[in-house]
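FW: tagging you since you asked about this chain on Friday. Here's the raw sequence from the shared folder, copied in full. Didn't touch anything.
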Amino acid sequence: MKKRRWGWWLGGAIVVIGLLVMRFLPLNQYIETPGTADNLRNFVTMPTRPDKRKGDFMITSVYLQRATPMSWLWAHADPHATIDSESDVTGGQNGATYTKVQNFYMQSAINEAIANAFKTAGEQYTKRYLGIYVLAVTKNSHFNHTIKVGDTVTKIDGVHYQSAAGYQKALAKRKLTDKVAVTYTHNGKEKTSKAGLIRLPDGRSGIGITLTDNVKVSTKIPVEVNPGEIGGPSGGLMFSLQIYQQLTNENLRHGQKIAGTGTIGPDGSVGEIGGIDKKIIAAHKAGAKIFLAPYVKPSKELLKYEENHMTNYQQAKATAKKYAPGMKVVPVSTFKQAVKYLQTHK
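HL: got it, structure written out here
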């Protein structure tokens, strides 16, 4: 009897351990599924310009989680889930660095959204260039041990340029044997590091750092945008529309729930994003009838590199046709184009 009891206990323990492994063992893969479509009134606060119009502008998101054996099996049975390798998702960055970059992308999107909305509405704003934000540092960069992701480069050899492109052009003119002094801020403190250049994949000289502009936008009309747990740049278009709606009090929504996605550039251009098929699903579940999708002209060369070999607009239309009947997918290339569509379509 004792041996039989021990056998039961051992078998039970093995089953429990197996279930725990299936449920909690992290894999080097991520699962992406439809997230939420949230009312932008909950994100944008303008005390002197409240949003009193009917209808909602909605920001869409995807849900990204590290896979476990159990969720990995479940994802294969879910038509709306995709499985990606960790390196494809994070670009080889650790979790903390990846989160930092995504938060910067979001803050940058908010700044550009405010600037675009105020400019289009004819309201006053100022845009101050702070420097270039460091998104990544290559392994072969001679600055690898000094400059980190999240730092802001402010000068090259004592010269402050007005854009990331300005820095890149200045460095491209240097010889590989040159050494340059890079001034940057790290955790609020200014530092300078001097090292040599490397040859970039395009043949130019550089310091081996992926850069983007770091700007601060200030306005006389108070506006605060709190993105909550959402990261990345894909909410730029919808933030712009919500802010513009409150600035002008135009009846853009005509009582409808309008969702969408897309980055927003300094010139008002709307850029493509990832996971648009899942955002269509999220918008449909939230009751949206109109979805604004980034549009680029498709070409054979472009489609080689596109997700599922379809542009955002093509993928959004195909997903809506299959899973969101009655939803109208509207292609937009610029912020002003999105505003004009809403002004002229009730």
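FW: The first strand starts at residue 29 and ends at 39.
HL: agreed, and The chain is about 35% helix and 30% strand.
FW: great, closing this out.
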